[in-house]
Amino acid sequence: MQHLLSRIKALAAEHAADTVALRQHLHAYPELSFEEHNTVAFVTEQLRKLGLKPQPIANTGVVALIEGRNPGTRTVALRADMDALPIAEQNEVPYKSTNPGVMHACGHDVHTSSLLGAARILMELKDEFEGTVKLMFQPGEEKLPGGASLMIQEGVLENPKPASVLGQHVFPMLPAGQIGIRPGRYMASTDELYLTVRGKGGHGAMPEMNLDPVLVAAHIIVAAQQLVSRRANPKLPTVLSFGKVIANGATNVIPNEVYLEGTFRTLNEEWRNEAHGHLRRLCEGLADAMGATCELEIRRGYPYLENEPKLTARVRSAAEQYLGAENVIELDQWMAAEDFAYFSQAADACFYRLGTRAHDGRFASSVHTPTFDIEPQALETGPGLMAWLTLQELAVH
To answer: Is there a catalytic annotation at residue 360?
Structure first.
């Protein structure tokens, strides 16, 4: 495989400028979740230029197959997401977003262009490997129910069924040329909480005449943290946060109701389900005990993301061959969420992070900020590494 490694590195370098151009085009024309019509048309066009036969899926998604020799032997699936965020870009660059208030601030333009670059490399090598590569360009990662879940419902993991699924995500905390990886539980499930507490409003100077929902809501916020401190296993990461509280009274006005929004995240599906019941009983019981009422809506989001240990060990070993062991970093668990988790729940999967910061410290803005951008070198590393990992996985018996 050493000759293939050298060839892939050479092809990644040869095509790097074209991959950068693809990314800059995607960056200039971002589209929101499940509205990626022009993006998927562009991706489809690029795949056809490579000689592939892309097929639509999940409305604004696309899937294509690269068949090597003996295509029925083994299949590896590669995933990239395509949607942007409702953020107004502040970067002054030639490829700045042309869609006001919409920006590729999470690097999905990098993911898509990297997968197109990997597809180009693999097409040039298709006579030198056995098996099939399934390219999955996914809509709607940033918005529930998550495009990954819709693609799975429409059969993206069948016909042919992949033995493994690989995905990568930008990571500005690491410099270009490095990746981060972690076996096992890596990212959290995410559920949205919408809570309304109802009492009886009135004049703030006469609390005895009212039933103060602000006080009830405050008790619920404090008591709900007992789920983390006293009901959750201390060895299991759990986060409960309320980020929006609207009472909408005044200095001397107690409102009739208080509205709250929050998030619940963890790394275990059984505890996740159990915690939902605890939280509902706590909110309703505490409100009732204080004479108020409440309504709690829990919108179930993405599951937790699990990197299959054996696959992840193989990915790490292959990445060390490609990048050098010093450039493959062990990551901590992260309580953010990703809908790649659906793939990880349905198949052996590995989701790793692609360094995008410059070595001099530039391009260090976090994802989901209006100044996010990347070091272009990452667009040589990303496609080449993904192609190399794919060939390594296709060779597993």
So the answer is: no
